Amino acid sequence: MIRLFKVFIPVGTLTLLISELLLVTSAFVFATYLILEVDPTVFLLYDGGLSRIALVVLSILVGLHFHDLYTHIHVQSKIVLVQQLCLVMGVAFLTQGLIAYVNSNLRVPIRVMVVGSAIAVVAVFFWRIVFSAFALQVVGRDRLLLVGGSPLLEDIGRYIADHPETGLEIAGYVDDRHQPSAPLPGGKTLGAMGSLHEIVRTTQPHRIVVGMFERRNRMPVADLLDLRFAGNVIEEAANTYERVCGRVCLKEIRPSQLIFSGELGPRPQNLLYQRISNVVAAVVGIVLSSPIMLLTALAVRLSSPGPVLYRQTRVGLDGALFTVYKFRSMRADAELGTGAVWAQKDDPRVTTVGRIIRRIRFDELPQLFNVFRGEMSIVGPRPERPEFVKALNEQIPYYRQRHCVRPGITGWAQISYKYGDTLEDTITKLEYDLYYIKNMSMALDTYIIFHTLKAMLLSRGAQ
């Protein structure tokens, strides 16, 4: 896995992206030589042909990403893949129409567009099949040997088994808890701790991940030192969990790890850059979304009795209380008899219009004013109500640490995990929030915003 934008990207995914960038570009360049009657070299180099093709390629790659074709890179159905590729090309044609409306000189000639798209569909289709069947077996396959018997190791193995696109593979487990050949998530037990040297020599793993079953259990320090000085890469289970799963493991984290962490955010310069960019983004967002907010307010007002805006007290930076603004998506009397309660799946209190604006996240648009006032950020942990925060601080360790940054309209937890209404869901989302705080940067914010726009366009909103 390679770290980009403070996020670990599977080598296989990055390889697929780069290869398809070259493949699609080549398809349109070839179509240019095949179709144009004038000298294609003149068109490409002196008439802006390459920049026009670059816009087409960009729209196609974004379309592939929006169809999750870089998240789920294994081909499950050839028919579905063809349908997705055709939809992507359709979006590329629509994008070309928009570009022609703005500036016709940036549009690719229609015949080149048709032939290039056809070639690209065929090329990407067959390349995906080959890549899924063969290339993933040799590109970026890191073999992990999981040593020590910690339940966290099984969590890592289970995640890798469920996400083959990570490009990781379990070489096996080494511990004294299970019998040899006992099946475990993603692999099996290869032997006891006493045979660690022999197992490493046999399996030749790329990384050895160590997590002891109990803290009082003796770690084989001498064996691990010998293996490390022999050139083996050795990692703590908590670090591997964070790298693979994209979240901090609360079960294994110790205060000293946070206190002495060399990269734990937020850093003052990051907060300054974020505040400046937030003000700019809020002003631009308010101006551009004002027609949408006007129409949304009208729809909310006409669909059900009650105020257009929903005002609610939330906990912000350093535990300070502030009033968050949202378009009302529930009945005006939603909490009249119950008080503060978490939203539920298919919540009956949500109105018809409310369900729509939640799905496309238009209900969050008034929070741009909270961002402008400095109470919120574009990206950050989700702000919670004081009633919930008080209870969660008592039940979950490190929960109050999430208030060391401004809460956000969107965040790492929101794009990485489903909406949750249980204590277990809250713990999982806190793990994602701590990962964001630890790796806070403009690059990670950009990555989160891009995925949020994808969720909005595909109507993958919250409850």
Low-confidence stretches: none
What would you call the quaternary organization?
A: single chain
- Give a count of the beta strands, DSSP E runs of length 2 or more: 12
Distance between the termini: 33 Å
Structural class based on helices, strands and sheet pairing: alpha/beta
Mean of the pLDDT scores? 86
Largest sheet entry:
6 strands, mixed
Helix-strand pattern: EEHHHHHEHEEEHEHEHHHEEHHEHEHHH
Helix content: 40-55%
Question: How much beta, percentage-wise?
Answer: 5-15%
Q: What Rg do the Cα atoms give?
A: 26 Å
**Strand arrangement, largest sheet?**
5-6-4-3-7-8
C-alpha geometry: globular
What's the helix count?
17
Task: Describe what this molecule looks like in 3D.
- By secondary structure, this protein is α/β, with parallel strands linked by helices.
- It is 53% helix and 12% strand.
- It is built from 17 helices and twelve strands.
- Strands 5-6-4-3-7-8 form a six-stranded mixed beta sheet, with helices on both faces. Strands 1-2 form a two-stranded antiparallel ribbon.
- Helix 3 (49-66) crosses helix 4 (78-102) and helix 11 packs antiparallel against helix 12 (352-359).
- The longest helix is centred in the middle third of the chain and has 36 residues, at 268-303.
- The model has no long low-confidence stretch (mean pLDDT 86).
